[in-house]
Specification:
Elements: H1 31-36, H2 39-42, H3 46-78, H4 83-132, H5 135-140, H6 143-162, H7 164-185, H8 187-194, H9 197-234, H10 236-241, H11 245-297, H12 303-315, H13 317-344, H14 349-370, H15 394-397, E1 436-443, E2 456-463, E3 468-473, H16 479-485, E4 494-499, E5 502-503, H17 509-515, E6 516-519, H18 530-535, H19 543-552, H20 556-561, H21 579-592, E7 597-601, H22 609-624, E8 627-631, H23 635-638, E9 643-648, E10 651-656, H24 658-664, H25 666-673, H26 759-762, H27 765-778
Parallel strand pairs: 3-8, 3-9, 6-7, 7-8
Antiparallel strand pairs: 1-2, 1-4, 4-5, 9-10
Helix pairs in contact: 3-4, 3-7, 3-12, 4-6, 6-9, 6-13, 7-8, 7-12, 7-13, 8-11, 9-11, 9-13, 11-12, 11-13, 19-21, 24-25
The protein binds adenosine-5'-triphosphate (ATP).
Adenosine-5'-triphosphate (ATP) binds near residues 2 and 480.
Membrane topology: Multi-pass membrane protein
Protein name: ABC transporter ATP-binding protein
Pfam family, one: ABC_membrane
Length: about 775
């Protein structure tokens, strides 16, 4: 995966309706609609929530009774100069105040715990979704955008449930009840106070639209900021190593400046609406005060009624004034809900697969209706094409046929066109029931431009049960992409992959996980112990599996040397370990569960040649019992395989043994030699690679380099090594304390092994490695 392909979903910030972007989410129509989507999460606590809201409404309305007590007090005991009555009125007011405070306290108590639960449930749902979403989703989304959704946005939503959601309801009811009181007390003065309602509503709706845009922008910018922080922390070695702290700081400053600008805009909008919702009611109250005073002076209104009227109006000030920031908070919550559901609405791998299966079933149904077909290929290819010569390339592919079904006429005798490496002895009847079969596989990354060719095309390949197939190709030819299809990190855009006769898309996630194990070139370790990292490779793995896996990966020595052995925390992403050590732990994880299918993406690239030879020797035993696809850049890794498939520009252009390909395929020979491709050059001088002697490899010294404890030099000198002879499984003792897998007495290991004649051994593995690294940096 290229890092450049990984971008945050872009939001059209000029669009007040919200995102219309890579996430494919329809634009936001209204804050209410966005917020209504939260109901399923709130439903489990609805009883408590509505009880709390009811309690808050009662508490708020108690506040409206206070003006009535004041009216009674002024028109009664105060006018009559009755001190006892005044004390009584004071007592009533105190009781009402206490009741109001207690009820608000109860409301808080009622909702605090359930709403924390709602937030936790939402966070859990998001996490589950993120874990289940396909890799293609993660390619598109910057991690900071996901992090900010899981933290800031959910926090905003919890605050919304706790405060604005309740108080929009409470304040709304309070304002309505208060207005009724005002109109009942004195309808003409009440109308004066209601005059600002219309302009207020207009201003609020303008504010809501503008604030929604600013809020969305701020929350997306915070996501970008989180991404930069995360990348700086995770990539601290690169930042320091290349002295990039200034440019990182600049990028960070730029983003913080943008966030600040957006927050200031939000503050300005908030200030203006706050100003309006404060000023208009104040003007109305002042007008009512003047009119009321005139009426009291004229004897048309009692002083008590005016006091009660004005007290009610003042009691309504807070509910009205709070509308501004309640709307602001609700807006932020609606944006947070949109951002949250953008992730939740993404289709998981299973849902995508279900869709694909349904589409395929529909297509097959249509094809069946159109007439019987011979092969079983989903693309309708016909079978019966003869065996393809070993090194023929793409030209033959156009005619490549799918395996016929077992019951089809001639099924037992038709050689498989992808399977024909030099006198293939395993073209047995019904072989398609086993092994790994790629059938007309095509893959295109979702962000590949439509006019660009797909990353993988017409991939037809059969890896027989128990066979190890090396996958070789120039950098960027699609090797990693092809290996990623088997554990279903991506699904082919055409064709199918069959494991032991079962279409990959019909297997459940658990089945795929049990059948297939992977080790990638970039090993990821989790913040857990070394043992836990390895045992993640399967369910119910025991100590014995751990030891065996560590032995295969030649990781026993260094794991034992860790402060707490296998129980040592290997730290975030295993950063406390060297690259080679991490790679070996990742390899151990891949083999721990004895998977039926093993996918290794250049899993030994970070190892020094001594360790690599030891790992390879031990790996042979594992490979003998699994069906494996191994991405290889070096002859030493290729020699682990029974056969090699050459991937060129996204197509399998040749399949054969290493020696056959070296002899017959110039591109392969060039790749293995690490020389520039001069396969088309007629003046190309003959190289050692041109005349291989497959059996001569037995002459090459085996990886018996002696003390395996010295095997932890992950980037040590390059010596020739390896036992390519598949007939010799190599070591029988994989204990780290045992001598090397081959002749322990042999001491002539080293670069000056003049006697070796194997062409692969003569190629310089370092060359291959160097060219790969260059390729990577270019990529
Ligand atoms: N997530 C992605 N989105 C879009 N294009 C991608 C993605 N990952 C890889 N590619 C492109 O697909 C092509 C094949 O990449 P891939 O990583 O499979 O090559 P590779 O043969 O494994 O290369 P290498 O040997 O350098 O690891 C490249 O052109 C690459 O840029």
């Amino acid at each position: 995966m290229t890092e450049t392909a990984r971008t945050a979903p872009q939001t059209d910030l000029t669009d007040p309706t919200g995102p219309t972007d890579l996430t494919g989410v329809p634009p936001r129509h209204s804050a209410v609609r966005s917020l209504l989507r939260l109901w399923p999460f709130l439903r489990p606590v609805r009883a408590r929530f509505f009880t709390a809201a009811f309690v808050a409404v009662v508490a708020s309305c108690i506040g409206l009774v206070i003006p009535l007590v004041l009216k009674w007090l002024v028109d009664g005991p105060v006018t009559a100069r009755d001190p006892g009555g005044v004390w009584l009125g004071g007592g009533y007011l105190l009781l009402l105040g206490i009741a109001e405070a207690v009820l608000f306290g109860i409301r808080r108590w009622l909702v605090a715990r359930p709403l924390a639960g709602v937030e936790a449930a939402m966070r859990e749902a998001l996490y589950r979704r993120v874990q289940r979403l396909p890799v293609a989703f993660h390619d598109r989304w910057a991690s900071g955008q996901l992090l900010s959704r899981a933290t800031t946005d959910l926090q905003l939503l919890r605050m919304f449930f706790t405060f604005p959601l309740t108080f929009l309801l409470v304040n709304g009811v309070t304002v309505l009840v208060g207005c009724a009181f005002l109109l009942v007390q004195h309808w003409s003065l009440g109308l004066v106070l209601l005059v600002p309602v219309l302009p207020l509503m207009v201003m609020c709706s303008v504010f809501e639209a503008k604030y929604a845009v600013a809020t969305r922008r701020a929350q997306d910018q915070l996501g970008d900021l989180t991404t930069v922080v995360e990348e700086s922390v995770l990539g601290i070695r690169i930042v320091k190593g290349f002295g990039r702290h200034r440019s990182q700081a600049r990028a960070f400053r730029k983003l913080t400046h943008e966030v600040r600008t957006t927050e200031l805009r939000k503050a300005r909008l908030l200030a203006s609406i706050w100003c309006v919702v404060t000023l208009l009611p104040e003007i109305a109250i002042a007008a009512a005060l003047v009119l009321g005073t005139v009426q009291v002076a004229d004897g048309e209104l009692s002083a008590g009624t005016l006091v009660a009227f004005l007290s009610t109006a003042l009691a309504l000030r807070w509910p009205v004034e709070s509308i501004g920031f309640l709307l602001a908070m609700s807006n932020e919550a609606a944006t947070a809900a949109d951002r949250y559901f953008e992730v939740l609405d993404e289709r998981t791998a299973e849902e995508t697969a279900e869709g694909a299966v349904a589409e395929r079933a529909a297509a097959e149904g249509a094809a069946g209706a159109a007439g019987p077909s011979r092969g079983g290929a989903p693309d309708g290819r016909t079978d019966g094409v003869g065996a393809r010569p070993v090194t023929t390339g793409g030209a033959a592919h156009g005619a490549a046929a799918a395996d016929p079904p077992d019951d089809a006429p001639g099924a037992d005798s038709t050689p498989h066109p992808y399977d024909n490496a030099g006198g293939d002895a395993d073209d047995s009847p019904g072989r398609d029931r086993g092994g790994m079969l790629f059938e007309g596989v095509e893959f295109r990354y979702p962000d590949t431009p439509p006019d660009a060719p797909p990353t993988l095309r017409s991939i037809d390949l059969h890896i027989r049960p128990g066979e190890t197939m090396a996958l070789v190709g120039a950098t960027g030819s699609g090797k990693t992409t092809l290996t990623a299809l088997v554990p279903r990190l991506y699904d082919p855009t055409a064709g199918r992959i069959v494991l032991d006769g079962r279409d990959l898309t019909t297997l459940t996630r658990d089945e795929v996980r049990t059948l297939v194990a992977v080790a990638f070139e970039e090993p990821t370790l989790f913040s857990a112990t070394a043992a836990e990292n390895v045992l993640m490779g399967g369910d119910d793995l025991q100590e014995a599996d751990l030891l065996r896996a560590l032995a295969v990966a030649q990781a026993e020595g260094f794991v034992r040397a860790l402060p707490e052995g296998a129980d040592t925390q290997v730290g975030e992403q295993g950063m406390s370990l060297s690259g080679g050590q991490r790679q070996r732990l990742a390899l151990a994880r891949a083999v721990a569960g004895r998977p039926r299918f093993l996918i290794l993406d250049d899993p030994l690239s970070a190892l020094d040649v001594h360790t690599e030879a030891l790992v390879e020797a031990a790996l042979r035993q594992v490979l003998a019992t699994t069906t494996a696809l191994v991405v290889a850049h070096r002859p030493s890794t290729v020699l682990l395989a029974d056969r090699v498939a050459l991937l060129s520009d996204g197509r399998i252009t040749a399949v054969g043994t290493h020696h056959e390909l070296l002899r017959d395929n110039p591109e392969y020979a060039t790749l293995m030699s690490g020389e520039p491709d001069r396969s088309d050059d007629p003046e190309r001088p003959a190289t050692d690679l041109d005349g291989p002697r497959p059996d001569a490899r037995s002459d090459a010294h085996s990886p018996g380099h002696g003390d395996p404890d010295h095997s932890d030099h992950d980037h040590g000198d390059h010596h020739d090594h390896g036992d390519p002879d598949r007939g010799d499984p190599g070591p029988t003792d994989i204990s780290p304390t045992a001598p090397g897998p081959a002749d322990p007495g042999r001491t002539d290991a080293g670069p000056a092994d003049a006697g070796r004649t194997d062409p692969a051994a003569r190629t310089d593995p370092d060359h291959c490695r160097t060219s790969r690294r260059e390729g990577e940096s270019v990529r």
